[in-house]
Amino acid sequence: MTAPTTAARKGGRWIEQWDPEDETFWREKGERIATRNLVFSILSEHIGFSIWSLWSVMVLFMGPEYGVDAAGKFFLVAMPTLVGGILRVPYTFAVARFGGRNWTIISAATLLVPAITAAAVMEPGTSYTTFMVVAALTGVGGGNFASSMTNINSFYPLRKKGWALGLNAGGGNIGVPVIQLIGLLVIGTAGAAHPRLVLAVYLPLIVVAAALSALFMDNLAPVRNDSGAAKEAARDAHTWIMSLLYIGTFGSFIGYSFAFGLVLQNQFDRTPLQAASLTFIGPLLGSLIRPVGGRLADAHGGAKITLWTFAAMAAATLVVVYASAQKSLPVFLVGFIALFVLSGLGNGATFKMIPGIFQAKAIARGLKGEEAASYGRRLSGAAMGLIGAVGALGGLGINLVFRESFASAHSGTPAFVSFLAFYAVCSAVTWAVYLRGARPASASPAAEPDTHDPRPERQPAYADV
């Protein structure tokens, strides 16, 4: 999604030349600009995540007087994940069309729509259909992630992407526990009859985020939409393999974040206040540790960290299944919060893999230097939107599985068993595709095409991605 030469774009805050792989440029100018954009990208994405997860909080305010049962609430919190996942694809390409700064302003301001409409309808007597429509509007907050990650991906050199993308995503993800903490504060002080107080906090914050983006962010003129890159990424098997893995990491994080409070209420008969006092812990820890996953991936390879993460997630799920069967809330919390922490690590590691995979493919094709870096940026930028969209839909799947589990078995145990099987599949895929027989790129002859080896382009070494 970058081009070496571009026609100048008119207007303020457009950067015409950008080469983060040039160490001199990066040291003298690039790092300072990239860091400034990262900070305000995180702020807008943070609020976007809060609005996206708004209904995971609103359902805690919905007592019997609202006339919505447990199955209906699970479906209600699933709706934003569906819309958010779909919107991630067009949001990815909006960065190049409008500019990263400009689109951040637009996408942040758009969050006013679901916030204002939620404040208008959040009262007993509102129809379930109306709640579903308003919940769907919060999906725009989920779209913010894709545009933010695509934008920041263009600012940073490959060697810094794991940490930068981890910070950007982790800072955004923290929006989930923050709005849950605000919900807890409102329930604990004003009571469950005042959900609009949560919206009163966010309406001015949305305006502030949009204004700060306008004042301090930049557009990168070299970033261009490339329909050829999008088609090439969609045809590449690695895009869909990474989508599967991202369902396992981010899909778990967002799905569990939205469902945690409802699981506590229905599995362990917690009151809204008791549930709200616990729901923020897992998303908070998972968000904080996401940059660590990126840093570990930078140091040891994203594939290795991802494999160990899925293995640990399977073990944590076994703990949750045991606790559910024994109806032990303390053991359940240990296992479930561990799932949040591990999904956060996995989020950072899997997203680091994406640019590394396409860089490895470029080298395997015989490309070198800036030509290889340009190819990697071009394909990874396009792939991130697709992978992010599919991963978000994993959150929809988790809530629908919970809905069916509680409707049929009155327990979340069958849902967790199915998640355990899925993590086993993800572990096997990670090992088989990215680690089995892989050699580090620095020691691999894949950098020089070998006419005697039919595998270089099809199966480059991925141990370090």
Description:
The structure is a single chain. Strands 1-2 form a two-stranded parallel ribbon. Helix content is 78%, strand content 1%. The chain is globular and about 60 Å long. The protein is mostly helical and 465 residues long. Mean pLDDT is 88; it is low at 1-7 and 440-459. The chain has one domain (15-447): MFS general substrate transporter like domains (Growth Hormone, Chain: A, Up-down Bundle). The protein contains 18 helices and two strands. Helix 3 packs parallel to helix 6, helix 8 (158-173) runs antiparallel to helix 14 and helix 15 runs antiparallel to helix 18 (413-435).
Kindly summarize this structure in a few lines.
The chain contains 18 helices and two strands.
Q: What are the main properties of this structure?
A:
two-stranded parallel sheet, 18 helices, NO3_transporter, transmembrane helix, 465 residues, mainly alpha, nitrate transmembrane transporter activity, globular, membrane
Oligomeric state of the chains?
single chain
Our measurement of the CA-to-CA distance between the termini, rounded to an integer number of angstroms, reads: 20 Å
Characterize the main sheet.
2 strands, parallel
**How many β strands by DSSP?**
2
Helix tally equals 18
Low-confidence segments, given as residue ranges, are 1-7, 440-459
Spell out the CATH superfamily: MFS general substrate transporter like domains
Order of helices and strands: EHHHHHHHHHHEHHHHHHHH
In the CATH classification, which architecture applies? Up-down Bundle
What proportion of the residues form beta strands (DSSP E)? under 5%
* Chain-averaged pLDDT: 88
The CATH topology label is Growth Hormone, Chain: A
Q: Going across the major beta sheet, what is the strand order?
A: 1-2
Helix-strand category: mainly alpha
Rg, rounded, reads 22 Å
CATH class equals Mainly Alpha
Silhouette: globular
Helical proportion? Answer: over 70%
Could you say how many structural domains there are in total? Answer: 1
Protein name: MFS transporter
Keywords: Membrane, Transmembrane, Transmembrane helix
GO molecular function, one term: nitrate transmembrane transporter activity
Subcellular location: Membrane
